[in-house]
Amino acid sequence: MNLESKIYDRTFANCLMNASGVKCMTFDELEVLRTAENGSFITKSCTLQPREGNPSPRYIDLKLGSINSMGLPNLGFDFYLDYVLNENNRNNKNVFFSLAGLSLEENMEMLKQIQNSDFKGLVELNLSCPNIPGKPQTAYDFDRTKVVLEEVFSLYKKPLGVKLPPYFDMVHFEMMAEILNKFPLKFVTCINSIGNALFIDNETVVIKPKGGFGGIGGAYVKPTALANVRMFYKLLRNDIAIIGCGGVENGRDVFEHLLCGASMVQVGTQLMKEGTDVFHRLILELKEIMQTKGYKNIEDFRGSLKEL
Ligand code: SIN
């Protein structure tokens, strides 16, 4: 059975990878991801300068998922650029490099340096971090997103995709898809956490930043993630792949993301809980489902969700 998947002109040994932010900040974490069973991996969303991020506690496991307000802690752009250009990665066309500059200028500076480097992988531009006090999630501002993408593609010519926040309104799906379809994007990642939720335990919030408000991940978000994967799969050009992210705990969740049209599937909360062994388990569980249904390849069923 073959779990290979494609985005643009890249073929991945299987459709699984980490969600940016989960176990991908330090050199050691990235090395574990690079050598695990996932088909690809992505670096922590970085800013030009290193950041401490928000005060702790800023990530809490919940019964049905997680809440976080990390605030983009990262080792800075130079560290991640060095990492993706080191001898183990420099010829890896399948590594994803996540950027989350605090301004358009910062993103353009990082993209300029990547453009001028030997980087051969794919950039995921994060337009959806909900956790920086005072900074809106870019992709909730449709006009701004268009301006950002115009600037980005005027400079950057290597493969690039964007990480989107969840949308909840049919008109918003259509408005965002109309914008995205104008640009030479290679993929979109759906979804980032459902931002600014509140979890209460014993009459108290559970994370410190922003009065306890944080992004929700895990099982709570799976139906929203699947809806976003499905809508963008239907509305975007065929050459823009969808990376599904949200609520993946087992092989059936991976299968459902693929059924909705995802080409790759990112694992966040469950990777945090289980470590990279999760990829081995998910591969076995996905294979079992495919075997039962007589599918030999992901392309035998990808996108083929049935409607009533
Ligand atoms: C964070 O560092 O706050 C998480 C990143 C994100 O949600 O995009």
UniProtKB/TrEMBL annotation:
Active-site residues per Swiss-Prot or TrEMBL entry: C129 (nucleophile)
Pfam families noted in UniProt: DHO_dh
GO cellular component: cytoplasm
Enzyme class (EC, first level): oxidoreductase
Keyword flag Cell inner membrane: no
Pathway(s) served: Pyrimidine metabolism; UMP biosynthesis via de novo pathway
Protein name: Dihydroorotate dehydrogenase
Organism of this sequence: Apibacter muscae
